[in-house]
Amino acid sequence: MKTILFTFVVLIFVLTPVYGQLLSDATGLVNQLDVEIGGQTFEVKTVSNFNVRDFEFDVDDKKLTLFISSGLENNLGELIIPKSLLGGNMTFYLNDDEYFPKVDATERISFVTLNFTGSGDNKLDILGTTYFFGLTEKDDILENQPISAIPPIENTNDSLLWIFFAVPLVIVIVFVAIKIKKRN
User: Do 45 and 97 sit in the same domain of this protein?
Assistant: First the structure.
């Protein structure tokens, strides 16, 4: 029984550091950016493994700028931008270089998936061709309801978590079976 316990403790110390970094990369920081224009507030949400320190919205240029701070080399994030704030054909610039993230859209939102490298401070500019798109009256602006649910970042580490928990369990079961067989 001491062998089983020793093996289990050793596996915890071996597997945890190996997969710990992958688990921390997948965690999501949630930011709600309230963009105020003309007395109206539009909610932009982010879920990412980096921090959005600050943001700016330039009405004249139809541009949303996010100031990003990251301690990781590989950055993953998702943005939900209401089309009533910024819409049309969007162009993205990461640190002043054109950037091509994955963009999905519905009638009401643009869902942007960011995946880039570079730790430290980064700047993401999002330029739209329209803003206040589809809002013709003040009542339309007031109906701009906040987005209540953020789709989660897809967890690509499910198989690693399975290994992390299943391997020690299988080893314990095998050792117990061997002990029982030796007693018979």
Answer: yes
Q: What confidence tier does 44 reach under pLDDT thresholds 50, 70, 90?
A: very high
In 105-138, which positions are buried (b, 16+ CB within 10 angstroms) versus exposed (e)?
eeeebbbbebebeeeeebebbbbbeebbeebeee
Q: Per residue in 56-99, pLDDT tens?
A: 999 888 899 999 999 889 999 999 999 988 888 899 999 999 99
Q: What is the arithmetic mean of pLDDT over 17-28? A: 50
- Residue predicted with more confidence, 101 or 149: 101
Pairing of strands 51-58, 40-48: unpaired
Task: Write out the residue range of the structural domain in which residue 15 sits.
Answer: 2-23+158-183
CATH of the domain at 55: 2.60.40
| pLDDT of 170 higher than 50 | yes
Provide the angle, in degrees to the nearest 10, between the axes of the packed helices 158-183 and 2-25: 170
In a domain, 152, yes or no: no
**Does residue 151 lie within any of the structural domains?**
no
Residue 89 lies in a domain: yes
Residues 62 and 79 in one domain: yes
Q: 123: Cβ–Cβ under 8 A, 6 or more apart, which residues?
A: 65, 66, 67, 68, 94, 95, 96
Reading the block at residue 60, the tokens are 């004249």
